[in-house]
Design brief:
The protein has about 600 residues and is α/β, with parallel strands linked by helices. The protein is built from 22 helices and 22 strands. The N terminus is likely disordered. The structure holds ligand C2E and magnesium ion (2 copies). The site of one magnesium ion has 4 residues, from loops.
């Protein structure tokens, strides 16, 4: 006989502990009656199963909070029932109290082995029964709380995992697929064996100017507006992803060749010709694009992306709003560029950078008044490498900062050495790159080198280009003031090739203008270069600046410069840049012989 209320509410009521449910399993109905009487004043729901099998059937429908289980039953005995219940994960947490007349240690051990949680001996004592049932209900309650807690935890973890997945696969600002998502889609394309696709990598030109001038909030709005415009070009099945700050990428399907792609590229470029309205401002933005066409040679999803990125980098070198298709030579150039970067890093560690010195001559007296320090790379296989080949790479990688300090230190040490040998009036000019100029440690580094080499700052000249000044005029003014307060002199190198804006000169505390050698090289009486050089010298005189002409190669050039009143000069006519020992041998230790 089974007493069970099968209404839905009752089935679930077991979850709540305000009416705990007990299942009494005993083949003697009288025993059930006894227990029912003993527990009559308790708020329990009692259910009865007259055999082991009935009990198991009951559990299929409803799980009680505690089971009181008789051992000696006909058919399936209590030990077996206990074993079966405990073997089922859903049921194993229901506490089982064995109600038994068997009390030997062996019997009890058998019950425990079968998974029983407690015992009550027959005949059942009311107080003992109540105490044991309550204790088991407490355990059941704790288990249920734990299960609820675990379920909540699991659902939170699932929610968080879903959020993370979204973050990984979707860009938070634009809601576009992320780089990871694009890589996954590319990987699917490659796996399917399709090669008629194209990857177009886009990078906005000078986007950081927007962030810098208007702030990141406006930058974000502009990115959203750009996203909208790019999305208009999407065909069904194509993908537009955001790759990072101002970088986007298209994955286009069914693109047979470059010609087929041209209208798409033109349309993208066209869509950037009208301004974006952001924060009540009209903003013009251009993009550069790098494109790679699908190929069966592509194995990994990163490869087409990398190649499109390489092509984009090439497009950038051509200027704003340009695009480039990837080709093999590009990859080779990229590789040799990477090799150069590694070699330069190693060269710095192995101290392969050496400083050469080119005399700077007083054009009135013909005497050497100082030197310009020019870096060379003493390459193990290639011999002496000129800066034109590696300075741009040093600049881009930022390695120019430590290399620049190496040169400064070598030059200052050399100057002190020469001064100690008696050439006390010499000055040393050292080039500073734009990168060094914007490095916050620059002043500290210079102070340290001057202190270590005990060179007087008044003998040091630092050469900077116009672009170093114009890139960040306010910082540059502060920095040059700091340098000049130490009595270090400042030269504007390659003057006339940069902004050619003379307007900044009166605002900017400099000492010397170095006329770029391109003007000196093609100096002809009365020609345009002659006019430029004349203007620069006149201007310098008016502003109280000294002038040095670079690249003097012929006696004629020298004569004209002297006539124009140019104070200083350097060039192959006097000497090429040389190593310190040669400078000493050829010029410093020789009997005095003025150059002009
Ligand atoms: P720069 O500072 O304008 O240096 C003058 C360059 O003109 C030197 O080239 C020098 O060898 C060359 N030169 C001098 N006289 C003549 C001449 O009569 N005819 C010709 N055709 N060239 C002449 P170099 O040594 O190859 O250096 C090139 C540039 O590399 C330098 O131009 C400078 O901008 C940069 N550089 C060199 N050393 C350093 C350095 O230590 N740090 C930084 N940041 N840049 C450096
Ligand atoms: Mg220079
Ligand atoms: Mg120069």
């Amino acid at each position: 006989m089974l007493i069970v209320d099968t209404t839905i509410s009752n089935i679930y009521s077991g979850i709540l502990m305000d009416h705990p449910s007990l299942l009494i399993v005993d083949d003697e109905p009288d025993n059930f009656d006894v227990i029912e009487t003993l527990l009559s004043d308790q708020d329990y729901q009692l259910h009865y199963a007259a055999s082991g099998q009935e009990a198991l059937d009951f559990l299929d429908l409803f799980q009680p909070d505690v089971i009181l289980l008789d051992v000696m039953m006909s058919g399936m005995d209590g030990i077996e029932v206990c074993k079966r219940i405990k073997a089922i994960p859903q049921w194993e947490s229901i506490p089982i109290i064995i109600v038994t007349a068997l009390t030997t240690k062996t019997d009890l051990a058998r019950c425990l082995m079968a998974g029983a949680d407690d015992f009550i001996s027959k005949p059942v004592n009311r107080l003992e029964l109540m105490a044991r049932v309550r204790s088991m209900l407490r355990i059941r309650q704790q288990y249920k709380q734990l299960a609820t807690f675990n379920a909540r935890l699991e659902s939170t973890v699932q929610q968080r995992t879903a959020q993370l997945q979204t973050l990984i696969f979707q860009d938070a600002l634009t809601q576009l697929p992320s780089r990871t998502s694009l890589l996954q889609k590319l990987s699917e394309v490659l796996q399917s064996g399709v090669s008629s696709f194209a990857v177009i990598y886009l990078d906005c030109d000078q986007f950081k100017l927007v962030n810098g001038s208007f702030g990141h909030a406006v930058g974000d709005q502009l990115l959203l507006a750009i996203t909208k415009r790019l999305q208009q070009h999407l065909r069904p099945g194509d993908v537009l992803a955001r790759m990072g700050e101002d970088e986007f990428c298209f994955l286009l399907h069914q693109v047979e060749d470059a010609i087929a792609l041209k209208p798409f590229i033109e349309a993208i470029l066209q869509s950037f010709r009208s301004p974006f309205i952001v924060a009540d401002c009209e903003m013009f933005m251009t993009v550069c694009m790098g494109i790679t066409l699908g190929s069966s040679a592509y194995q990994q999803s990163e490869e087409p992306l990398q190649n499109a990125d390489t092509a984009m980098y090439r497009a950038k070198l051509q200027g704003k709003g340009c695009y480039q298709f990837f080709d093999r030579q590009m990859a080779e150039a990229m590789l040799s560029r990477l090799t150069l970067e590694n070699d330069l890093q190693r060269a710095l560690e192995q101290q392969e950078f050496v400083t050469y010195y080119q005399p700077i001559v007083n054009l009135t007296s013909g005497k050497i008044c100082g030197f310009e320090a020019l870096v060379r790379w003493q390459h193990a296989d290639r011999g002496m490498v000129s800066p034109g080949e590696f300075i741009p790479c040093l600049e881009e990688t930022g390695l120019i900062v430590p290399v620049g300090i190496v040169v400064l230190k070598q030059a200052c040490q050399q100057l002190r050495d020469w001064q100690q040998q008696g050439w006390t009036d010499l000055t040393m000019s050292v080039n500073l790159s734009v990168r060094q100029f914007s490095c916050p440690d620059l002043l500290n580094d210079i102070d340290r080198v001057l202190a270590e080499t005990a060179v007087s700052p008044a003998h040091l000249k630092l050469e900077i280009t116009e672009s170093a000044i114009m890139d960040n005029a306010q910082t540059a003014i502060g920095l040059t003031e700091q340098l000049r307060s130490r009595q270090i002199q400042i030269s504007i190198d390659d003057f006339g090739t940069g902004y050619s804006s003379l307007g900044y000169l009166h605002r900017f505390p400099v000492d010397i203008l170095k006329i770029d050698r391109s003007f000196v090289n093609q100096l002809q009486a009365g020609n345009r270069n002659y006019q430029v050089v004349t203007t620069i010298i006149t201007l310098s005189n008016q502003l109280g600046l000294a002038v040095t002409a670079e690249g003097i190669e012929t006696a004629q050039q020298l004569q004209w410069l002297q006539q124009l009143g140019c104070e200083f000069g350097q060039g192959y006519l006097f000497s090429r840049p040389l190593m310190a020992a040669d400078i000493e041998k050829l010029y410093l230790k020789k009997a005095y012989q003025p150059f002009c």
